[in-house]
Amino acid sequence: MFRDPDLERSAPVTAFLARVTHGWVAYGSEGVMLEHRLDAIAAAHGVQASAAVFADSAVLTVEEDGHTRTLTIGADQAIGRLDRFNNLHTVMVEAVNPAADLTVLGRTLDDIAASPPPYSELVKVFGIVLFTVGFAVNVQATWTEVIFSLVNGLIAALVVVCGDRIQRINTILPFVAAFLISLVTVIAFNHFELRGGAILLMVPALFFFLPGDILSASMMDLAQNRVTIGATQFVHALFIILMLFLGVLMGAAVTESSATDLFAPAASAQFPAIVGWIGWAVFALGFTLALAVPLRLYGWIVLVVLVAFGVQTAITAIGGEVIGTYFAALAMFAVSVLISRKPGRPPVLVLELGGFFCLTVGSLGLEGLVGLLSGQGVAGVTDLVSMLTIAMAIALGILTAAAIFYRPLAKN
Length: 412
Hints:
By secondary structure, the protein is mainly alpha-helical. The protein has 2 domains: 110 residues, no CATH class; 291 residues, no CATH class. It is built from 17 helices and 3 strands. Strands 1-2-3 form a 3-stranded antiparallel sheet. A hairpin with a 3-residue loop joins strand 1 and strand 2. Helix 2 runs antiparallel to helix 4 and helix 6 packs antiparallel against helix 12. About 2% of the residues have low confidence.
């Protein structure tokens, strides 16, 4: 956690805002709301503040006691600990009160930074497996998909745990996971002559690494003319998808499998439609455990996920995927904002992130890249264009909901 004792003595509000900014950059993947929140806290304590937010840093300018200070604050992002972001949000809400003691709240920020994960490694592994299984039944509603999601989800979870223990390999975790999952899946796929594309058996486990939330956030930034952070986040998301793509292709190459075999159509459903709804409830529980969200917030998270899925399903049946996704994003964000307004409830980011995963932006990008390399250029280009179109639909849906429902932190 950012800390400057000299600054705390000479400009306590500036120091507190700097620490909050550091926490926001470190614990969350969104930068578009930070400016409003800093402005609300600063105004409550008699200073003026502005911030230029980037993907992994922010430039904070504060005018306090006749002095203007500009600070560049960088942080390694760790969005896998949403409990920290949730607790940071609570501190920010308290800080808007002009009577709030920023020294005491600063010590709370220290406690947040030093706090251990709320769940054990075993619970996290279990959460990632649930995350995978819940998503799997919405990819292919077959027993084969469920079985592979159990195995591949366990592989993904073990890779994540290794990354937690060996921090220097964190940047290549998507590649390592994709390679191992591709290797296991393709060998089994070829040995048992299974129906459905092998890539569809891999996607649920790889979905934990897919940056659908970053893609959507980047589109929202670009739509609000925040070109620098939007373009940076977009490139970051594409880089992660490319690592997953190369891992999948290398696994197939080691087994001497044709890339065309990866891109076969989905198998016929073996489960009724209600299983998809149950799957998203299981997914939401896995999301809660895997990303360290306090268990007491599970009900709110599953509500937002089911709203996103329900609206998308209903509207898509009437007006198509793009319109369905637009209204699903609008409903998801609106419900998240309305829930988060009352004290003690989770912030919008924690609530909407599950909905972002549900809207499956990143998986289309991965399938599109695999399709292009396998020689199915039309399908590949179509999926990549769909990824961008759906991402924009999500961004516009969120912007619409924000214009109607979002209030600055000071009015929460």
